[in-house]
Amino acid sequence: MSERVTYKRLLRQFAAIGPYLREDLCEEGRYRFDCLSVCVSAKPAPDKREFWGWWLVLEQDDHHFRYHYQLGFYDADGVWLDKPVPKKHQAEVERTLNHFYKLLVDRLTVLECHLEPAEQVTNELAVTAA
Protein backbone atom coordinates (compact mmCIF):
# COMPACT_ATOMS: atom_id res chain seq x y z
CA MET A 1 0.00 0.00 0.00
CA SER A 2 1.30 3.44 -0.84
CA GLU A 3 1.95 6.10 1.77
CA ARG A 4 -1.01 7.86 3.32
CA VAL A 5 -2.79 10.11 0.87
CA THR A 6 -2.76 13.61 2.35
CA TYR A 7 -5.65 16.06 2.32
CA LYS A 8 -3.75 18.61 0.21
CA ARG A 9 -2.71 15.93 -2.29
CA LEU A 10 -6.29 14.71 -2.59
CA LEU A 11 -7.55 18.26 -3.14
CA ARG A 12 -5.02 18.71 -5.95
CA GLN A 13 -5.97 15.37 -7.50
CA PHE A 14 -9.70 16.08 -7.25
CA ALA A 15 -9.32 19.61 -8.63
CA ALA A 16 -7.45 18.14 -11.61
CA ILE A 17 -10.54 16.09 -12.55
CA GLY A 18 -12.40 19.22 -13.62
CA PRO A 19 -14.80 21.83 -12.25
CA TYR A 20 -16.60 19.47 -9.88
CA LEU A 21 -14.74 19.97 -6.59
CA ARG A 22 -16.29 22.41 -4.11
CA GLU A 23 -13.13 23.01 -2.12
CA ASP A 24 -14.80 25.53 0.20
CA LEU A 25 -17.16 22.75 1.37
CA CYS A 26 -14.41 20.15 1.90
CA GLU A 27 -12.66 19.15 5.08
CA GLU A 28 -10.15 16.45 5.81
CA GLY A 29 -11.81 13.08 5.24
CA ARG A 30 -14.89 14.59 3.54
CA TYR A 31 -14.99 15.97 0.01
CA ARG A 32 -17.86 17.60 -1.84
CA PHE A 33 -18.47 17.68 -5.59
CA ASP A 34 -21.32 18.86 -7.77
CA CYS A 35 -22.31 19.46 -11.37
CA LEU A 36 -24.77 21.91 -12.87
CA SER A 37 -25.78 19.60 -15.71
CA VAL A 38 -28.75 21.35 -17.34
CA CYS A 39 -29.53 25.08 -17.21
CA VAL A 40 -33.22 25.74 -16.57
CA SER A 41 -33.19 29.12 -18.38
CA ALA A 42 -30.41 31.29 -19.78
CA LYS A 43 -32.50 34.45 -19.28
CA PRO A 44 -31.48 35.33 -15.70
CA ALA A 45 -28.05 36.79 -14.96
CA PRO A 46 -25.39 34.03 -14.78
CA ASP A 47 -25.18 34.22 -10.97
CA LYS A 48 -28.98 33.80 -10.68
CA ARG A 49 -29.44 30.87 -13.07
CA GLU A 50 -30.97 27.62 -11.89
CA PHE A 51 -29.88 24.13 -12.88
CA TRP A 52 -30.71 20.45 -12.72
CA GLY A 53 -27.74 18.37 -11.66
CA TRP A 54 -26.18 16.39 -8.85
CA TRP A 55 -24.00 16.66 -5.78
CA LEU A 56 -21.80 13.96 -4.32
CA VAL A 57 -20.12 13.57 -0.93
CA LEU A 58 -17.00 11.44 -0.66
CA GLU A 59 -15.92 10.25 2.79
CA GLN A 60 -12.44 8.92 3.41
CA ASP A 61 -11.11 6.32 5.81
CA ASP A 62 -7.41 6.01 4.97
CA HIS A 63 -7.28 4.41 1.47
CA HIS A 64 -11.00 3.62 1.43
CA PHE A 65 -13.61 6.04 0.15
CA ARG A 66 -17.40 5.85 0.30
CA TYR A 67 -19.68 8.06 -1.73
CA HIS A 68 -23.30 9.08 -1.71
CA TYR A 69 -24.94 11.45 -4.09
CA GLN A 70 -28.21 13.19 -4.81
CA LEU A 71 -29.85 14.38 -8.00
CA GLY A 72 -31.72 17.63 -7.74
CA PHE A 73 -32.21 21.32 -8.35
CA TYR A 74 -29.68 24.12 -7.86
CA ASP A 75 -31.68 27.27 -7.12
CA ALA A 76 -30.97 30.96 -7.77
CA ASP A 77 -29.60 31.32 -4.22
CA GLY A 78 -26.96 28.66 -4.86
CA VAL A 79 -28.66 26.01 -2.74
CA TRP A 80 -29.12 22.37 -3.78
CA LEU A 81 -32.66 21.07 -3.30
CA ASP A 82 -33.71 17.44 -3.33
CA LYS A 83 -36.23 17.63 -6.20
CA PRO A 84 -36.98 15.02 -8.87
CA VAL A 85 -35.21 15.77 -12.15
CA PRO A 86 -37.70 16.18 -15.03
CA LYS A 87 -37.73 13.16 -17.33
CA LYS A 88 -36.43 15.18 -20.30
CA HIS A 89 -33.26 16.08 -18.33
CA GLN A 90 -32.59 12.78 -16.54
CA ALA A 91 -30.34 11.30 -19.22
CA GLU A 92 -28.03 14.34 -19.28
CA VAL A 93 -27.82 14.56 -15.47
CA GLU A 94 -27.02 10.83 -15.28
CA ARG A 95 -24.49 11.13 -18.12
CA THR A 96 -22.56 13.88 -16.30
CA LEU A 97 -22.64 11.92 -13.03
CA ASN A 98 -21.36 8.73 -14.69
CA HIS A 99 -18.66 10.71 -16.53
CA PHE A 100 -17.48 12.25 -13.25
CA TYR A 101 -17.59 8.88 -11.51
CA LYS A 102 -15.29 7.33 -14.12
CA LEU A 103 -12.80 10.19 -13.71
CA LEU A 104 -12.97 9.82 -9.91
CA VAL A 105 -12.41 6.04 -10.07
CA ASP A 106 -9.44 6.53 -12.40
CA ARG A 107 -7.90 9.12 -10.08
CA LEU A 108 -8.40 7.03 -6.94
CA THR A 109 -7.02 3.91 -8.67
CA VAL A 110 -3.78 5.76 -9.44
CA LEU A 111 -3.60 6.69 -5.73
CA GLU A 112 -4.16 3.01 -4.81
CA CYS A 113 -7.45 3.86 -3.13
CA HIS A 114 -10.71 1.94 -3.11
CA LEU A 115 -14.15 3.46 -3.83
CA GLU A 116 -17.52 2.01 -2.90
CA PRO A 117 -21.06 3.26 -2.36
CA ALA A 118 -22.04 4.32 1.15
CA GLU A 119 -24.65 2.24 2.94
CA GLN A 120 -27.45 4.64 1.99
CA VAL A 121 -26.78 4.14 -1.74
CA THR A 122 -28.97 1.32 -3.04
CA ASN A 123 -28.00 -0.89 -5.95
CA GLU A 124 -30.41 1.02 -8.19
CA LEU A 125 -28.63 4.27 -7.33
CA ALA A 126 -25.04 3.03 -7.44
CA VAL A 127 -23.08 4.84 -10.12
CA THR A 128 -21.04 2.96 -12.66
CA ALA A 129 -18.00 3.91 -14.66
CA ALA A 130 -19.59 2.42 -17.79
- Rg over CA atoms: 15 Å
Amount of beta strand = 25-35%
Count of individual beta strands:
5
The class by helix and strand makeup works out as alpha+beta
Compressed to H and E, one letter per element, the order equals: HEEEEHE
Total count of helical runs of at least 4 residues: 2
How far apart the termini lie comes to 27 Å
Shape: globular
Major beta-sheet overview = 5 strands, mixed
- Average pLDDT taken over every residue: 92
Q: Could you characterize what this model shows?
A:
This protein is α+β, with helices and mostly antiparallel strands. It has helices spanning 7-17, 87-110; strands spanning 30-39, 51-61, 64-74, 80-81, 114-117. Strands 1, 2, 3, 4 and 5 form a five-stranded mixed β-sheet that branches. It is globular, with a radius of gyration of 15 Å. It starts with 6 loop residues before the first helix and ends in a 13-residue tail after the last strand. 22% of the residues are buried.
